[in-house]
Amino acid sequence: MKKIVVLGGGYAGMRAIKKLAHAKLDAEIVLVNKNPYHYESTQLHQLAAGTREVSDITFDVRQVVPKNVKVIIDEVTHIDQKANRVDLKNGGPINYDYLVNCLGFESETFGIKGAEENGLSIVDVNTAEAARDHLEAAFKRYRTSHDENDLHVVVCGAGFTSIEYLGELAFRLPRLAKEYGFPMDKVRLDCIEAAPRILPMFDQKLSNWGVRYLEKRGVVFHTNTPITEVTPNAVMSNDTAYTANTIIWTTGVKGSHIIGDSDYDQKRNRVVVKDDLSIEGHPEEFLIGDVSAVPNPNNGRLYPTTAQISIAQADTAAANVVASINGQPTRKFVFKPLGTVCSLGPNAGIAMVEVFGHWKLKGVLAAIAKVFIADEAVLKLANLKTMLESK
Ligand SMILES: Cc1cc2nc3c(=O)[nH]c(=O)nc-3n(C[C@H](O)[C@H](O)[C@H](O)COP(=O)(O)OP(=O)(O)OC[C@H]3O[C@@H](n4cnc5c(N)ncnc54)[C@H](O)[C@@H]3O)c2cc1C
């Protein structure tokens, strides 16, 4: 009997497991995940800003995977591709015939001095909770410290996570001010970005609308401002210091360090995959989600890593494992993006949607689109009950 091992219970891993389990294979299927729960990475910014609780964005993996899947809660420490073996932190090693590698993303600091030590990243439940606790402690402290830096927040980077976090935080601020008794006019929200434009993947009018929306709620954007160092209380851009006691580090992500540590041919812990999502020289391994780099066949450029593409990849990877076991040819991965949505708090957003035509949405309609996409994602990973419970 063949053994299929899936690493990581994120969007890619959970979807791959669901597809494999329903394929009626005579095979052993194993899922290895660090935590007993799946977390919705696309909502981590809400946890970090305190507009959502952990229970809103997580569900128990063992309660939703089909009975023919064995779940191992452990941490992968190394993958030996030559020996077809996965090493774990606590348990013994696991051998595999087929591997679906979906170990996901980590924060990228680009080697900037002090970023890792002094910036709060938002990459999993623990880091998002730590960011929220740090922020709330600083706001609470202001009453006794009268240190204005306790009310200053600097967000590094202006990509999706930064903007979505700022939207949630700006929404929550008036309530936090009431709760902790600090003056709103002393709060400063700075967003520092090296590039000349905020959210360049959106149409200029839409991104301008998003920027204005956040500026009206107190966010100050600093574009063309490369970060050169992060200290415990300031973000430096050459000689200019943006001081704050809460520094959020959301400049970008890379793949899991396990990829870099395990001798893959990688760049920023991502591996360029073949058109069937396997990797060169290893037809038994499919690499999907944020650890993979997928060239768009139309222009040769890599697709951005998203939950949307991770779920689509999982369908192809699972089908290709089944085809390989059955001695059939694998199929090419074809991706049709459904569009891009960026929330600006719970009640607004901007979106470019590619469903039944091209739609440019802003305000509450975009926020609704985001909720539908999140719901659909949970439905694809788990079941209707889980989707309704995670509301
Ligand atoms: C705040 C935020 C908002 C986002 N919004 C959107 C959005 O609106 N739309 C969109 O499409 N994308 C969005 N993204 C991107 C999206 O979340 C990622 O592309 C997606 O999560 C990648 O899925 P994945 O399954 O590859 O990895 P992950 O979701 O990172 O899952 C990896 C899994 O592997 C587990 N794991 C990691 N290391 C180990 C180990 N060593 N051993 C065992 N298990 C391990 C983790 O615990 C996790 O369960 C957002 C990301 C963030 C941070």
Automatic annotation (TrEMBL):
GO terms for biological process: aerobic electron transport chain. InterPro entries: FAD/NAD-bd_sf, FAD/NAD-binding_dom, NADH-Q_oxidoreductase. Residues 3-314 form the FAD/NAD(P)-binding domain. It comes from the Bacteria. Its cofactor is FAD. Keywords: FAD, Flavoprotein, Oxidoreductase. One of its GO terms (molecular function) is NAD(P)H dehydrogenase (quinone) activity. Its EC number is 1.6.99.3. Belongs to the NADH dehydrogenase family. PANTHER family: 64 KDA MITOCHONDRIAL NADH DEHYDROGENASE (EUROFUNG), APOPTOSIS-INDUCING FACTOR 1. This is Pyridine nucleotide-disulfide oxidoreductase. It comes from Bifidobacterium bohemicum DSM 22767. The lineage of its organism: Bacteria, Bacillati, Actinomycetota, Actinomycetes, Bifidobacteriales.
